[in-house]
Amino acid sequence: MDSIAVVHPTFEKLKHSSRWLHAAAALFILTHALSHVHRQEMPTIYFWCQLLISLDIFILVLAGRELLLLPRVNLFFRLVEIIFFLVIGLIMLLAGNWTIAVTHLALSVGYSYLFYCERSLRKKELLSLHHIGVTIPGLPESRFLLWSQINDIETSYDSIRITTSDNQKLNFDLRKNLTFAQLEQIHEFCRHYLGKC
Length: 197
Known about the structure:
The protein is of the alpha+beta class. It has helices spanning about 10-35, 45-65, 65-70, 70-95, 100-120, 180-195; strands spanning about 5, 125-130, 135, 145, 150-155, 160-165, 170-175.
């Protein structure tokens, strides 16, 4: 059975929240820059680097959501944010400012997790039926369900609904409507492995 491109709700939320995540990162960076503008222990270049990075991210956010939905652009800026928060955290740790250090290191870890999840968004969200089970897209990784873990699969030309053995309902809209042959093939899998459909 070929894989079917689906719209995964969690993936879509993450894709569309990237604008706000970038804006939050830019705001954190700008706040940090302004809090260090007159400190003697920090070099002036430190302030200007933070200011330029925050303004750069703000410009990216204002440039439009379509630009942020491009996977490589989004991943590049996520990587910049990770490095920035990590470096600030380490500098604050060496300076003995534990609260700010832990906060920035935690932000770096959080953005690293987002980077990890967003890397999987570069691939299409695919649902695949196999002879031993069904692969469904998920974050941070796809999930595999054996046929014994599935109670029911309801399929129409534009959606697939899977009910698992623990009564979890997984609903997926399709990116492209199924052909009659594809729909019949899925029904054949269901009849063979579930005894229904």
